[in-house]
Structures are given as structure tokens and as C-alpha cells.
Specification:
With about 725 residues, the protein is of the alpha/beta class. The chain contains 24 helices and 20 strands.
Length: about 725
Amino acid sequence: VMASSTVAVVATCNLNQWAMDFTGNLKRIRKSIAEAKKAGATLRLGPELEIPGYGCEDHFLEEDTTAHSWEVLAKLLADDSTDGLLCDFGMPVMHQGVRYNCRVLCLNGDILLIRPKLFLANDGNYRETRWFTRWHYGWVLQDFVLPTEVAAATRSKQSTVKIGPGMLQLLDTVVASETCEELFTPNSPHITLALNGAEILTNGSGSHHNLRKLDKRMNLITSAVAKSGGVYLYSNQLGCDGGRLYYDGCALICDNGNVLAQGAQFSMDEVEVVTARVDLSRTRSMRGSFMSRCEQVATVPVVPRVTVNFKLCQASPFTFASDPIQLRVHDPMQEIALGPACWLWDYLRRSNQGGFFCPLSGGADSSSVVAIVGSMCQLIVQNVAKGNAQVLEDVRKITGEEGYTPTDAKDLANRLLYTCYMGTTNSSNDTRDRASKLAGEIGASHHTAAIDTVVEALKNMFVMLVGKEPKFRAHGGTDPRENLALQNIQARLRMVFAYLLAQLLPWSRGRRSGLLVLGCGNVDEGLRGYYTKYDCSAADINPIGSISKEDLKKFLNWGADELGYPELANVLAAPPTAELEPITADYTQSDEVDMGMSYKELSEYGQLRKQHRAGPLSMFKALVPKWGPSSVRALSVEEVKAKVKRFFFYYSINRHKMTTLTPSYHAEDYSNEDNRHDLRQFLYNPSWTWQFASMDDLQGDMEKDAARRGQGSQNRKRALD
């Protein structure tokens, strides 16, 4: 007698969904289903809230969003999409007047189970409790009455289905779901589900890219079934779905902790289906030999099951499981080159604009931005070469050239990227030359402009108005407000000129549409407020707005070789300067001198303030051992305290600038983006009287203790000598 197969072909996917684009989302879901079926899969998993798109935000509060999601599902039920394929979809569902973030499991034109999310993401960038309620009823199933149109679309004309955290009892295995955040919780549902006999666990997710985050997520996925055994499928959104986040894919299939298949983290493919052959006998063997696990089975709550007359293992008995593969994780510099590039591409093609404009100063920030656009052009050419029809269609739409097929990244950049060096008498030949050379290496359509006449016109208008002439400090100005105002005139006029160029440069070349203006501020300068409000930091989007200066320096060094833009090395070697003050024989403006702190220190402040939730006192406590008398830096406690106070003073007086920051690619958890990630007041008492007094008291206690133990800066320095 031939034994029944224990091997199933399962599929998961990365989908580049777009919030509220129900037509496009349905098209991409159908494509993923078609590819899963072509691979012989009997189970297909999609991302979290894939039908409306994860990033709908307050649109979830609209009844229309839920209604349209049901309409899409009805189409998937009415055609042959779910025939022979167990599909795990993501969408919002209203039950008894409460909105839930749900998985809807369907097969052969019917709905098998609606599985609501048990634990909601509600920190950092996520506000799920604003739109959804978690399932509070425990491991219980309730009856759910289907909308009339959906009931009519089901093959068996269902009127009700079960809703709740149940499992599917198939003829040959048990399948159960969890959703995104649930994987990250200490007591994840997959623990209870696995102990209840679920052999295949699915996770539809909406997880965004963070630099250096992928390892953590992948470790959680693999460890979910490394101890308890089982198959784990992970699906994620991919790309920019209409906001600051870039969802970074990496669909994954694991078996007993081994990775069998992995999707791309960064890609221009709108649909990527990942499949693997999984042998359930391996799970059963592992679990049956793990005796302490067997003892725990009787200690967990019983999870209800929905019986389904369907066999998942339809492969030939002579079909073998997929071999394990090595997990692929990008280097952080590759992440900077690829993530923001793909985000820019999605934004460009979906905004229907004609390209990008960047004010290119020859400094580190704007050079990083144009290098990322150059990376985007390289990716586009690679995708066209491998036959990505969607990318080619989008390129032709953006350029307005129906017969154009990009084969050279520089040629493409000349169509998509416009740059301008906007110099004044305070600008140097070095920065002008670096900007021109870098633009040439990338292929950008580059211009050089002198804006002194406009600057002088505005200054002269002020002189005519009040009868007094402001002067730079270097020219005899005595009030700091004079020096600052004259710098800000240049910076703000560059923003005005940038938008003029963005609207008219394509027109001047006979090309379609306008350009998206790219901002160039990094996360550290935003945190310190070291920029002019409504200068070139004011733009349409910013690909580096939450990337640290230290990482951008490393990226410049990396990109000089890996991206093929050697001028980036010269940009890195140059001292950072705003070039807004006159250069004299004994004075050249320096960013770090102006800020009163180094970029490395700023990164440290930013991480402590946001990621470690440190106020002035806690930051002081954290930095004394790192920078103080017993450290390599050997600063006095007084010096450390002064640095912390200086940071919080400038952070406080400039926090209002955060409210106007250009929407930026989210890459760091210490991002100061005020719109939804870093929610704080923007009017502070910069004296921080109570907090600073506490620091003063603590300093006194520290110095008394150090004196008692014979420690101090001098002792440390003598020891080093």
C-alpha cells in the first residue's frame, strides 16, 4: 500500500500594496494567487490588511473602507481564486459594532474562519488601537453574519461563519494564524497554538524597514518553531504604501527553525511569491521526541477548531522537502542604498511626477541624497534588463517616452534627476566643483546658479523699510541676530528657487509634468535644530531624514566604490560647512563648531533620548560612565553635565522646527519626526529648572564619592600616561 504524502507545497508573498488602492491591490493579490497555484501550492499567505493596504490609518474609521474590502473579497470568492488553494487574506472586519484587524481564511469559494488580531501594535510608528480593538474573548469562536453580497458570492451560500482565534483542522494537518505584532509579544499566540497541535503557522505582517532591524525579526520567526517544531510562514508588505514607512518584505518559510525560502528585502517587483516543500513528518518526529513539550500540551487553554474537508499534502509521496538555505541579511550601507531608493521609486511612480529635483551643495547630505537617486536608477535598469514589465511601463509613463527602454543608469538619471548648485559669495569653488563632478558621475541634469542678486535684493528691501543695514559678524556686525538673519536669507531663498526650478526645468527641456523636491536634512541636525526653518530642508520628501550623520559618512565611503561614484570620497574628506557666512583669512564656518557638539555626540543624545527614553537627568547618568573621569574621554563630570544641558537647551528652543519637517523615509528608531513617531510638545521651557537642578545635585554627590575613592579626571589621565 502506498503511504500518504506528508509533503505540502506552501506559498507566501511580498506584496507592494497601496493604501486605498482597492483595484491595484486586488490585481496584485490575484497575481500572487496565480503564481502560488503555478508552483503547485495548496496554501497561500498574504500580508496584514493586504486588501485595503496597511497604511489606511484614519480611513479605517470610514465604513467605506470595510465595505470595499468585503467587495474585493467577494470577487476573490466568486471567481476561481480560492479553488484548491487555502488562502489567508488580511482585511478589517466589523463584528457587533467593533472593528477588528483580521485574517480571513478561504477555500473553494467559501470562508472558513475569520481570525481577529489578539495583540495590536501601538508604539513607535504604529497606532492600531486608534482604529481597531483587539479580541478580548479569549480562545472562543462566535458566529459572524456575513454581509448579504458576500454571502451571495460564497459557493455554498454561507450566511454565517465563525470568528475568533481558532484553528483549521484539515484532513491531514492543522493550520493556525497569528498577525505581525503577536510574534513580537512575550507570550506569542504561536506558543499556545503549537501546543494545541497546529503544525503550520501563518503570519501576515505589515513590518517596516529599520536599519539593522532584520536580524531581530528573522530570529523571532525562526525561533517561533525552533523550540516547539512546526512550519512557519511569514508574509509582509513591500514598498511605500503612501506614507513615511518602507515595508521591507522578506517573506519567509521556516521548518523546525530552518529557513527553507526567503523573499527579497528590497525590490521593485510588485509581487514576489516564495514557495517551499515542507514535510510535516519532520514536525511530528521532532515534537514526539521532545518529552517536556509533550508534558506542557495539557497545561495550555484548548483552542477551538474548524473542521475542513481538504488535504494540504497533495504532493507525490516521492516528493522531498526543500533543503535549508542561509538567511540573507544586507549590510547597513546596502540598506541605505536600497531601501530609500525603492521608497523613492514607489513615491515617484505613484505621484505621477516627472522626476526629482535636489539642491546639490557639494556637502555630505545632498550628495547622499543624489547618490540614493543614482542607486534607484541603477536598480531600474537592472529590473528592466531582467524583464520587469511593470518597471518599464512606469519608466515610460514618467518620462513620457513610449518607446524608451533604459539600458544605462546615467542616461536614465539625466531624465529623472535634476540638480542645481545655488552659490553665493560665501560659497567655495571646492563645493561647487564637487557638486558638478558628482552630478556628472550620476548623470543628473545639473545647473550652477549664483543667487547673490536675489539675496541682495531682499536685504536692500529690508534696509529701505527700516533704514538700518544688518551685517555679518565678519563684516562688523555686533548683534548675533544680524549674522543669523543674513544666513537665513540665503537658505530660504534656495528653497524658493528650488521649487521654481522643480516646476519649470522639465518645461525648459520639453518634458512632461513637474519634479518632486528632495530634502537633504539628516536626523541628527533635525534633532539639534541645526537648519533654517523653511530652507532646503522644506521639500516634498526626504530619503535621509531619519538617517544619522555617522551612517551617512559611512555610506559616502561605501558608495564611492560600490555605487561607482568616486567623488563621494572627496565629499566625505571635506569638513562639513553650511557656507552661509563670509570666508575670511582666519575663519571658515564649521557645522560642528556652530552646533557646539559633534555629530557623534548628537547620535548618542538621539539614541538615549528616544530609544532609551532618557530625560536630562537619565541622560547625564548614562553619559558619565561613557564620557566621564573613568572613561577613555576622561571628561570631568562638570563637562559631561554641560554637554547634556547644552543639548537639551538647543533641542528645546528648536523643537518647533520638528512640526514642519519634510516627510522622511523612516530608518531609525530615534527619529525625531513629530507627525506620528516622536510625539512631544513643541513649546518648552529651555531652562529645565527642576531637571537641571537635579543634575547639579547629582554632580555634587558624584564628585564627593569620587574624592572619597581617590578618583577623578587627573587620576585617569595619569593612569593612561
